[in-house]
Design brief:
globular; alpha/beta; 13 strands; 24% helix; disordered N terminus
């Protein structure tokens, strides 16, 4: 199915008072992080307001989310309105800014000594804090992943907790990262360290039952950004929880063309469907804890569905569009209707298409009533060599998603958006969020990603007047994130 050619814009609906407006020229930094003499003019960022912290939310705020979920939590509505405002601003040609994001691969940070820019395991949140080590600023959006496990035979958790004890095996080797991933999201949303608010990991060092300890990064002690979660789910029924079981080539769908249909066959309650629901209950238990403390989460399940080759895709990708849509609806209804989770914004992100890893994704779209944010995982080309002769980097994906009339995010990229090859990315494609994937934030890793980000590139991004950073206090955020905490 072809997308409409016209863009359906809509006027911005700003909340109330008080945002800082950045002005002036954007200064490109040299490879050593120092100022380069070649300046690239950037437009002023338009005023963006999130309102006063703790205010009572007007009834029309977050109306797009309310249309999908009339019971959506106030904080989720505030985040939805914030992203909608950024999108609306961009469609008028006056960017309100792009929230710079960082994906944290919690399972690799805690368990993989070959991951990152030095040999050895790391505290979860290492690459969240690394942005500040390089630039003095923190990401405004942080995404973690609850899956895929690290070679264990069943789902498990770290310390016995109120939301997991009695439901999943506790104190199991390799599973401590799930506790830490959830705690990191709470720490970004509420601040760290913070007063005891009934959540875990509010201050100091947490001693874990496996003998390890966890110390989350300081972000100023006040609301520090918005958060999300993806789910690299091993195939339903897998006897091992690990990344290789997320891949199509290691799942039953590689040899059994009818298997995926049985996974989504809720009508006949097949064993494959029951295995899917069991996996979703593991996800829901962790999201339920965040919901109980009113932490809104941008949930990004079943991404990159438009890759066709089984050798290079996930088990849910490349399926019949109608069956993929059924998987999304099952997930949605289980989380929202069965489990009563109203703190979620659902994010749909195909992988880059048109000559890149994926095919046109439009037939896979679950429908406006099931999606709040659209985006792309862009691993095609590079800043130096964008896909397509003479094309503006990421523009075909930015334009291609426009007709959905949803906030648009660059959900995964190895590259920071503002860099020596592409210094004006955010003027040409003002995504609402741009998320850098894991260790690719740093240049000299043990197992490097391509392309590589220099310290100068990371500084150029985090100090761009078109970027909204996170943290509070000394971290100099581009916005008062406490304004999204409402009643």
């Amino acid at each position: 199915m072809a997308l409409p050619s016209a863009l359906r814009g809509k006027p911005a609906v700003l909340a109330v008072a008080g945002a800082v407006v950045a002005t002036g020229a954007f200064v490109l930094l040299g490879r050593d992080g120092r100022t380069d003499r070649s300046d690239v003019e950037q437009p002023s960022r338009a005023p963006v307001s999130v309102g006063a912290p703790g205010r009572t939310l007007p009834p029309d705020v977050g109306r797009d989310l309310l249309a999908r979920d009339p019971q959506a939590s106030p904080n989720a509505r505030a985040v939805d309105q914030f992203l909608t405002d950024l999108e609306s601003q961009a469609r008028t040609g006056k960017s309100g800014g792009t929230v710079i994001g960082q994906h944290v691969e919690a399972h690799n940070e805690r368990n993989n000594p070959e991951y990152g820019d030095y040999r050895g395991t790391k505290q979860v949140g290492y690459y969240y804090r690394k942005a500040a080590d390089i630039t003095g600023k923190l990401p405004g959006f942080v995404e973690t992943d609850l899956g895929p496990g690290y070679g264990q035979s069943a789902w498990g958790v770290g310390n016995p907790r109120s939301y997991s004890a009695g439901r999943w095996p506790t104190c199991r080797p390799g599973w401590q990262y799930t506790d830490d991933a959830v705690d990191l999201l709470a720490a970004v949303w509420s601040g760290h360290p913070r007063a005891d608010d009934g959540t875990y990991g509010t201050s100091g060092v947490q001693h874990n039952c496996d003998g390890s300890s966890t110390e989350l990064p300081d972000n100023g002690g006040a609301p520090a950004g918005i958060v999300g979660m993806s789910f690299h789910q091993p195939y339903p029924g897998s006897d091992v929880k690990s990344f290789d079981r997320v891949l199509c080539s290691n799942s039953p769908t590689a040899k059994d063309p009818g298997w995926f249909g049985r996974v989504v066959d809720s009508q006949h309650d097949t064993p494959e469907y029951r295995a899917l629901v069991s996996d979703l209950s593991y996800l829901a238990d962790h999201l339920e804890y965040l919901a109980a403390h009113d932490v809104p989460v941008l949930l990004r399940p079943y991404h990159e569905m438009n890759v066709q080759d089984c050798a290079s895709r996930f088990w849910w990708a490349g399926q019949k569009p109608a069956e993929y849509q059924a998987l999304w609806r099952i997930t949605y209804h289980y989380l929202v209707d069965t489990r009563g989770l109203h703190n979620l914004l659902f994010v749909w992100t195909p992988v880059s298409w048109d000559g890149a890893p994926g095919v046109d994704p439009w037939d896979y779209y679950p429908g406006a009533q099931y999606v709040d944010v659209v985006g792309v995982d862009d691993y095609s080309g590079s800043p130096a060599h964008p896909i397509g002769t003479g094309e503006v980097w990421t523009k075909r994906y930015y334009d291609g998603l426009a007709a959905y009339d949803k906030p648009r995010m660059l959900a995964e990229s190895f590259a920071v958006p503002v860099n020596s090859r592409q210094p004006d990315t955010l003027r040409r494609t003002p995504w609402t969020i741009w998320t850098v994937w894991g260790q690719s934030l740093t240049e000299k890793n043990l197992t490097p990603d391509q392309p590589r980000n220099t310290a100068a590139d990371v500084n150029a991004t985090y100090h761009s007047p078109l970027v909204l950073t996170g943290g509070s206090g000394a971290f100099g955020p581009g916005i008062d994130w406490g304004g999204l905490h409402v009643r």
